[in-house]
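Field reference: sequence -> structure
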Amino acid sequence: MNNTYQEEQFPSLPIEQWEDTLNTLHLFLQIIGKIRLKLFPKRNHWWHITSYVSTRGLTTGPIPYEDMIFEMEFDLIDHVLVISTSKNSEKVIALKGLSVSQFYKELFSALSELGITVNIWAVPYDTPFSTEPFETDDQHASYDEKYVNTYWRILVQVSSIFQTYRGTFLGKCSPVQFFWHHRDLSLIFYSGRPAPLWEGAGPVNSEAYSHELIAFGFWPGDENIREPAFYASVYPEPEGLTDEPLSPEKAFWSPEGGGMALLMYDDVRGLSDPKKAILDFMDSVYQAGAKRGKWDVKAFEYSI
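Structure field:
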């Protein structure tokens, strides 16, 4: 693959260069996600809370509200939040230069002007870098347009790859969706069998892991893993899982256990065919998890 083309499709994303921006964007996404959580009809495994990669950024998709629908989209090309309704009304909020507090206030003012009233639990969810309520958070205000756009362009490529792999599986599977909790793009396959209750799990994880699954994802790095990575996990972890081989060569089973496999993004970027490497990684984990977990693989294969 041509190096220039490869850089355009899978650009560098060093977390140290944009972590403040990533954290601010994460909090923006949590606010939007909590509105969707509050208003969207419940779906299994928390699928009603997610966002989706769009042609311009990340979108909630249509949300039902009284006699209309509305949508909130982070346009990460022009770097604005666009709120549009089925009643032909729209509000636009510029993102650069806003603190979390300012974003929160402008957003709820715009929603009110559009005739939308919603109350959320207005504090961050499970974010080690912040516990400050959204309305008073003036600390997080970084917004580097270059890196935000780079992150989105990577999500575009990964979303397409995940959609391709999703098409190989005939069983129950999730949409390709963005979880604002851990800011990861995710795809999940299910065996169809209930899973044992996760010991010590609260209501969130009990719902998310109620059935046997093999999950795939991409996230940009965090306070523990200091670089972007692809992951895949098998729940519950079957005996002998980590004895199974992974592909490509740089992929590895996490030493911390939990049925987790990792493939670092920068290792993928260095390969001649990154897309094939990502698909190979996903399939190697699926084959390992399905084999050791005794999934009915034949039942999930297309016959054509």
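Note: The CA atoms of residues 22 and 207 lie 27 Å apart.
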